[in-house]
Specification:
single chain; about 210 residues; alpha/beta; TIM Barrel; seven-stranded mixed β-sheet; two-stranded antiparallel sheet; globular; binds zinc ion
Length: about 210
Amino acid sequence: MLAGEDERSNLMSLRDRIGIDVGRRLRLEEALEWADEHEVRWIDIQLDAGANALSSFDDARAAGVRRACERYGVHLGLHTASAVNVAEVAPYVGDAVERYLEAYVEIAPRLGAEWIVMHAGFHFTSDKERRMAAGLDRLKRIVGHAERHGALVLLENLNKEPDEAEIHYLAHTVEDWPRVDHILQPRGRHRYAGPTGAPTTAGLADAPSG
Ligand SMILES: [Zn+2]
């Protein structure tokens, strides 16, 4: 093989690993077509509102999405909103957060989505321990729910906020929350965002075993 060909095949394998977080920018079906057109093999999408609202996927639409993923060879992932506080402790609101995460788990297999990105929530400095405990318990229940539905939960780290900020994201590093390794086994995984916070599918990492 010529050196140039070798370089090209390396570039192709790199290209095949690049994923795009579509967020709320496109209707899911259009995002799949866009990915096919641009030979992007991995996409994340949020299902919170508008044309992609969770409630808008009846069985016919969900089946169409599964077929499109297969036809285009696109790996689909769901991405929950980081603005929803997984570490919520308020009565009623905490239950609603849980229902939100469960709904993502339940729709994933229907759409053929291979993973669901979740976050650890955020705290307001003085309540860090309490919120961390609430978030851990919630994620543990959600991972159990995911196991039952055959869905895979990925925990994404979030940005570090300035020390003087009142609000801080939880688990912006694994060191921030070491117990998470244990909680998310065996099917949970960590996912690391780049320094700018841009998620990257190429950065998917298996959690350590044990
Ligand atoms: Zn995210």
